Amino acid sequence: MKRHVGNTTVITAIGNHDTSPTEMAAPASLPDGRANQFSWNWDYVSKLWHSEGWINSTTAKDVRTHYGGYSINPRKGLRVISFNTDFWYTGNAFAFINTTDPDVSGVLRFVTDELQAAEDANERAWIVGHVVPGWDGYSSMDNPTNLFYQIVTRYSHTIAAMFFGHTHEDEFAVYYHNTNGNSSSVSRKTEDAVAISFISPSITPLTNMNPGIRVLEVDSETYELHDYHQYYTPLQDVKDKKETKTGLVCVKADELSEELESSELEVRELSDELESSEEDERERDELELESELLESSDEDERREELELESELLESSDEVGEVLEDLERELLLLDSSDEVGELELDERERLELESELLESSDEDERERDELLESSDEDERREELELESELLESSDEVGELLEDLERELLLLDSSDEVGELELDERERLELESELLESSDEDERERDELLESSDEDERREELELESELLDCS
């Protein structure tokens, strides 16, 4: 490293393979001198890093105190905090001593103090470690993870970036707001995201990996990551190739920005599909609603038609009853011995009434045809006219019933002489009255056709109310 990077600042972080015995780190809180049983690890790396010029003597002392962890300011406004993550690593047997204490080693206390110092100095901070924190059940213990998430939440405005390894893969992790949560209670909402960490692939090919290195693009003022360029060695292609002066040949993979653009494109396409699906659902809902409204409207129209048909059938039944009464009257007149001119006049009158009723039937059929082909306004007018005609027909029926009773009285009378003459004159008068009634009906029809604006306005108001009801 020193030969290739020269005087470039190198920041290191202790990993689970960097100690002897591997993965072991004992907390300083252990009694009877057992806290220092692995201290040679921290003594060795502190001397090594100091001899390479990567840290000064003061920082070397911190390395021995904090199990290989330390903090430096490589540039103005930037504080880099490196710490030993083996104390939350499940592979470290000493991490299971007093698991109720989330920071038995004091490592997270050290990280918190350095973040507070960065905040006080108005600095941005980078956090560097090896074993990735989290509740994935792979490497980290719950209580230290929970405490670290709380620390990140508290100092998220100070933390510019976090870098981890351990998985040997190219990954990243999103941190969500956490005050005292766990894997099931921490929010997963986008608006609650507070930080992100970048997980770099390994140089070692363990296990079935391509060795990789990463070059970062960083803002020189905010120290936030803008992009990175990933390089790797495709081991399947170097089987028969020789090693160069600087090692195996690396090729450039996709850049982060390109991957994000591709991801954004996929997200936009997915979003478009979801929006299209939502529009289709809205259209289906609208069509279903229109269908329901049309069905309801059809039901209302059908109900009105059935009611009208019922009324017309009732009217037809009444006309049929009148015709039956007329036939009975004709039979009675035919069987009478003393009918004289009365019989002739009465028969003619009854035949005329029968023709009128038959004509009324034809008129009803014509009205039915008009009702089927007319629009709603004409239909309402015809219904009103039919109502008045039916009322008039009821009056004619009542008059016929009176005539029937009178005829029965005449048939049973022995003295018809002058009474018969008088009765004939009265019947002629009634016939004239009926004709006058017919003329009145025609006049009413003409009045209905030539009604003034007030009547038309009332009809329109009635139509409006009926339409509102519909």
Automatic annotation (TrEMBL):
GO cellular component: extracellular space
Superkingdom to which the source organism belongs: Eukaryota
Segments for region (Disordered): 262-319, 333-395, 421-470
Biased composition, class Acidic residues, residue ranges: 272-319, 335-345, 353-395, 430-470
Keywords: Glycoprotein, Hydrolase
Database matches in SUPFAM superfamilies: Metallo-dependent phosphatases
Molecular function via GO: phosphoric diester hydrolase activity
InterPro entries: ASMase/PPN1_MPP (IPR041805), Metallo-depent_PP-like (IPR029052)
PANTHER family: ACL091CP, SPHINGOMYELIN PHOSPHODIESTERASE
The name this protein goes by in its record: Calcineurin-like phosphoesterase domain-containing protein
